[in-house]
Amino acid sequence: MKTVPNLIPMLLQMIDVEEDETQLNTYRCLGKLMNERDIKTMASPNFLQHDQVKVELIKQNALPLLIRCIIETEFDSIRVKPIVLEILLALSFNNDASSALKQNINLMSKIRNLVDNTNSDK
Known about the structure:
Layout: H1 4-13, H2 20-33, H3 36-40, H4 50-59, H5 63-71, H6 81-91, H7 95-103, H8 105-121
Helix pairs in contact: 1-2, 2-4, 5-6
């Protein structure tokens, strides 16, 4: 995609904005657009590594919003939920996030239901 190289520098400028929701969405976009190789080859050595992005998402209290996207029915099951599940999977390798996710009974129940439904479809 030709626009991605132009989009990444613009998103990097938005990391320092004061609005929490804008920061959260900026980190989410960067996490989806960039891979580890992209980050390592960037001209700016100060850019956040993926683990740092994960920590920042956790510090910005993104987990409740992400969990809501999975639990509540108003979010699109085809377009939104798979992406959110990928993000939660990536965040689950952080000990704090993993504990918070495991303690959320509604989320764990929803994930078990998804697994059961997926297994029964096979």
